[in-house]
Structure formats: structure tokens, C-alpha cells
Specification:
Elements (H helix, E strand, L loop, with lengths): L4 E7 L3 H12 L4 E4 L11 H4 L5 E2 L4 E4 L5 E2 L21 H6 L5 H11 L2 E2 L7 H12 L5 E2 L1 E2 L24 H10 L3 E3 L3 E8 L2 E9 L2 E12 L6 H7 L13 E8 L13 E3 L3 H4 L1 E5 L5 H8 L11 E8 L6 E2 L5 E2 L4 H20 L8 E2 L3 E2 L23 E3 L14 H16 L1
Parallel strand pairs: 1-2, 1-12, 2-9, 5-20, 12-21
Antiparallel strand pairs: 3-4, 4-5, 6-8, 7-14, 10-11, 11-12, 13-16, 13-19, 13-20, 14-15, 15-16, 17-18
Helix pairs in contact: 1-6, 1-11, 4-11, 5-10
Length: 429
């Protein structure tokens, strides 16, 4: 191993990695961040997104588990926060408290810094108005989704899941930029291959970059590469329990066609009904596919004929059973269990009921294939890491959705940011 020994080395620059880099750098710590992807300067269209979504580059489709479950993730500075819908809900507070982790102070601090608030009413369009009224008529409750979106900057382009071209949405890039301003060093286009360990203590990372293989020495290493990449590195380091308990927050989208063109655009997932979260294990939120290829990926051949300017829709997201597995070679198993199917089917039935009430032709209503966009659980607290997020290897920590003890069924970004803030306090002493 050659070169400087870094005080803190962070693998990944998403919600956990970028926040941790920011918090440590602000405390005067020396930090280097390895990021597999690029720092994208052009984002916000489907064509742009083809560069940074993980998947089949020939067919432009996302990767799948061996069972066929669609798995979404992005490789880029800021991680999947850049391609999120800006939703920010605290999750798993009780489950984390049971592990000895109280996050109230960090959640409050993060929410204020990120500008989390129910989506501004000025951003709600015709879809939300129709669905909100229809849901209320049927006795359901659709409320404004808490988001980290600046209403004054938002242009309602609906490209949140491809990146925001107007910089209206908080992403981990905001924290990464602050980290750099405080002295943190990012290294882009560099993929971590192996955690280096000597006598039970971490010594650095072996990585592959633009100029070939390279080793980075470090006194402390924090893996924040996400629920599918972090467990691969942990297993290669000899931590056998890593990679198990894999969840993805399974979801399906149910859409229907209405008469007339929907003329008022709005951010995706503007409304949420979470009254079913505790009782049924799923939530509903407004959604329509924003590109023809996405329609095809989600709905098959029928998706190609869906008139997106006449669609209304709802997403059913469930906290799936953590019965998936990420293997040391990166291959993934993620079945949809009978319980998962039952929850998704019930949510899609309620969604269809609301859509028809909102004016959708009953014959047009269709539900997508199961998908997952919140991979985690593969280095769970209490199994792979302790309450301080440290592994059995001295000075090797994890700070991403891998550590979550169960599927949240809700967007985990805010809780991951809070966990990173807490870990920074621990590491900084």
C-alpha cells in the first residue's frame, strides 16, 4: 500500500456517505470519499439518466433479481438521492430505538437543513386534485407528501426520478459540496473492490479507477455504497452474515386512462395515504410513468400504448419480507412472497377503486410488475453492525440502508441522513 494514510475513508457519496463526509469535515477531520460514479453535470432527462442507472446498457432496462424483480439504483455522485422523488419521511424510529439508537434530535436537525415540509399546494395539479377528491369520497385520506423541494424553483417537469435540472430538490450533492468546501477530497469513477484488513483491523480499500487498480490507506473506513454493493464488500472481507435479510420496499403502480388531457403537471408522488402503513403494511401515493420506456419496463407491451397525458395513477409500496440475498459476486435473489403479493394486491385493488372514482375507465386500469427501489437490510444493526454501526472488524463501519433492521415501507433517505449525523458524532469523539 502506498501513499497517504487517510484519517477517514468513505465509500459512496449518497445520503449516508455525503452527510458523513460533511459532518466530519465540518469538525476538522481529514476525509476522502470514493465514488464509483461520476459527478454528473447534466441531469434531468430520461436520455441523461441512461448514463447513471444500473442496468442493461444494450436494452436500457434496469437490472433484475434472479426471480425477475426489477431493481432500481444509480451510480453517480449523490447516489440515488439524485434520482429520488424528493420524499422525506422518518422511518423505523421504534425499531431503531429498540436497538439503542435514538434519532429524534438528528431527524429534527436534518429536516430543518433539508427543508422538509409537506409539498406546497401550489405544486399540486389536476391528477392530485382528482385523486384527493375521489379518495375522500370513498373514505380514504390522501395528504400532501413531505418533500425536500423548493416550490419557488420547481417547474413541475416530473423529472424528479431522473434528476432535477432546476436544482429545486435537496440531494446528497448539497452535503457533498459542503464537505468539499470544508476540505473533504472526492475521488470519482473509482470502484471499491476489497476492504483491506490486517490483524482484525481495517487498513484501507483496494479500488479500481480510471488509471487502473489503486490502494487507499485509512485508519477508519465507512462503507456507504448502498444495500446491494456494501454487502459484497463485507462478504469479501470475511463477514459471513452480510448480504442476508435483503429487502427493497416492493411496489407496484396502478394506472388508468381518463377522458380528456391532464393539463396541469406536478411532481410525482405529490400525495400519500399512509393510514394503511401500520395496519396493512403498505402506503399509497400518486404516480404515473413519465417516459415510454419506463411504461414498457413496468407494464410490458401494454405500457407502450398507455397515453401518459391521460393517465392517473397510484403506487402501492410495501415493507417486504427481508428474505432476499446479495451474494459475494454481486448476484441478487429477491422473491416476492405470498405475504408481499397479498399486500400489493390489496393496495392495487384500493388504488383501482380510487382511480375509477376519479374518472378512469375501469377497462383501462392496469397494474405494473413488482419493483424495488430501497435496497437494504444486508448489514443489519444487531446482526452485522452494532448500535454504533461498527462491524466485527475494528474501525470498519457501515452507514447506508444496509444497516436498517427491517424494510421501512417508506422512503429511508431522511433516516439515513440522521444515522450519518449520529455516526459522525461518535467518530469525531
Amino acid at each position: 500500500m502506498s501513499g497517504q494514510e487517510h484519517e477517514f475513508l468513505i465509500v459512496g457519496s449518497g445520503a449516508g456517505g455525503a452527510t458523513l463526509a460533511r459532518e466530519l469535515a465540518r469538525r476538522g477531520k481529514e476525509v476522502i470519499v470514493l465514488e464509483r460514479g461520476r459527478h454528473e453535470t447534466k441531469i434531468g432527462t430520461f436520455q441523461d439518466s441512461l448514463r447513471y442507472f444500473d442496468g442493461n446498457k444494450l436494452t436500457r432496462t434496469p437490472r433484475k433479481s434472479k426471480e425477475g424483480t426489477i431493481l432500481w439504483r444509480a451510480f453517480m455522485a449523490g447516489g440515488t438521492t439524485v434520482v429520488s422523488d424528493g420524499n422525506q419521511l422518518p422511518c423505523l424510529q421504534q425499531e431503531l430505538a429498540e436497538q439503542g439508537i435514538a434519532l429524534e434530535a438528528e431527524l429534527d436537525e436534518a429536516s430543518k437543513e433539508m427543508g422538509v415540509a409537506p409539498i406546497d399546494e401550489s405544486l399540486l395539479g389536476e391528477r392530485s386534485q382528482r385523486i384527493s377528491k375521489a379518495a375522500a369520497d370513498l373514505g380514504y385520506r390522501m395528504g400532501r407528501m413531505p418533500k425536500a423541494i423548493d416550490a419557488e424553483k420547481c417547474r413541475k417537469c416530473q423529472n424528479c426520478p431522473m434528476g432535477c435540472p432546476f436544482d429545486a430538490k435537496w440531494t446528497a450533492l448539497d452535503h457533498l459540496q459542503e464537505a468539499v468546501e470544508q476540505g473533504a477530497e472526492p475521488v470519482y469513477g473509482t470502484r471499491a473492490l476489497e476492504v483491506l484488513v490486517r490483524n482484525g483491523k481495517v487498513t484501507g480499500i483496494r479500488a479500481a479507477g480510471p488509471n487502473g487498480p489503486r490502494e487507499f490507506a485509512a485508519r477508519t473506513v465507512i462503507l456507504a455504497a448502498g444495500g446491494m454493493s456494501t454487502p459484497v464488500l463485507l462478504q469479501r472481507a470475511g463477514i459471513a452474515d452480510a448480504g442476508q435479510q435483503f429487502f427493497v420496499d416492493l411496489y407496484v403502480n396502478t394506472v388508468g386512462v381518463v377522458d380528456g388531457v391532464i393539463r396541469s403537471p406536478e411532481p410525482l408522488m405529490a400525495l400519500v395515504d399512509d393510514e394503511f402503513h401500520k395496519s396493512e403494511g403498505f402506503v399509497l401515493s400518486t404516480y404515473v410513468p413519465v417516459h415510454k420506456l419506463i411504461s414498457f419496463i413496468e407494464f410490458g407491451a401494454k405500457g407502450l400504448s398507455l397515453p401518459r397525458n391521460r393517465l392517473i395513477g397510484l403506487m402501492t409500496k410495501t415493507a417486504d419480507e427481508p428474505d432476499g440475498r446479495v451474494y459475494p459476486d454481486g448476484k441478487i435473489s429477491k422473491p416476492v412472497t405470498d405475504r408481499d403479493w397479498a399486500r400489493l394486491e390489496k393496495g392495487s385493488r384500493i388504488s383501482a377503486e380510487i382511480l375509477v372514482q376519479a374518472g378512469a375507465d375501469p377497462k383501462s386500469v392496469v397494474t405494473s410488475k413488482p419493483q424495488g427501489a430501497h435496497p437494504g437490510g444486508t448489514a443489519a444493526i444487531g446482526t452485522v453492525v452494532d448500535k454504533d454501526l461498527q462491524t466485527e472488524i475494528d474501525n470498519l463501519f457501515v452507514c447506508d440502508a444496509s444497516v436498517l433492521p427491517k424494510a421501512p415501507g417508506l422512503p429511508p433517505i431522511l433516516s439515513i441522513v440522521a444515522l450519518a449525523k449520529r455516526l459522525a458524532k461518535t467518530l469525531a469523539g
